[in-house]
User: Fold this.
Amino acid sequence: MSCSGCAAGKSTFNLEGKTENIGGVSCYVGTPTGHYDHKKALILLTDMFGLTLPNNLLLVDDFAKQGYRTIAPDYLNGDAAPPYAMNNPNFDVKAWVQNHMPDVTRPPVDKVIEALKRQGVTSFAVSGYCFGGRYAIDLAIDRVVDVVIVSHPSQVQVPTTFDTFAQKAAAPLLLEMGEQDTELSVEKQEEIDAILGNGKYAPGYKRECWPGCSHGFAVRADVLVPEQLAGKEGSFNSSVEWLKTYF
Assistant:
């Protein structure tokens, strides 16, 4: 499954992190300037624009400022969607997705996590956006991470993906969605609530749905539009609170 919203949005930047090789994988890393727990790491799984999109790197920097060492691996193997794909209806998102299936894009994530374990990291959280959202869900299903945050995921099926999540995962899940998401409509979001909400998923579940926000807003919102800015900032703040509560 893919959607035109996966390639929509805007970007602006001023970066503070640095690129590191972790487990043979190029990563953008944000390290807190003050005291932080060296046994914890937040894995940030980007949208299809990967490490080439400054907005993704800014998210890493922002989480680091909140006290979390944050690592965004190049799990797209240096083949992120090009900048001209953004807001370009002629870009073939489906073809791009077919060249970035889990058999080639999940291994880099696993390599980074294993390398971090060798460095002494014992607890992992993950925050996944759009294309990276499904990988965040899968890491929770595989019991690799302790906390999971997912913003407007693609490549998911309702109810199948979330039935599996409910049965196999043990990480508390925060789901950040937009009211105008064409990938997962509000009706689909409510189906997910029926599976995980009202205490049915014991580890913890919360969904937020931001008015006026479409697929991709947590990364690529037009900050000149008040509702989009509110969604982008609000979803980030909620993500930090989720980490403070569960991580």
In short: The mean pLDDT is 95. The first helix runs from residue 54 to 65. The chain has eight helices and eight strands. The beta strands are 18-22, 25-30, 40-45, 70-73, 123-129, 147-151, 173-178, 205-210.
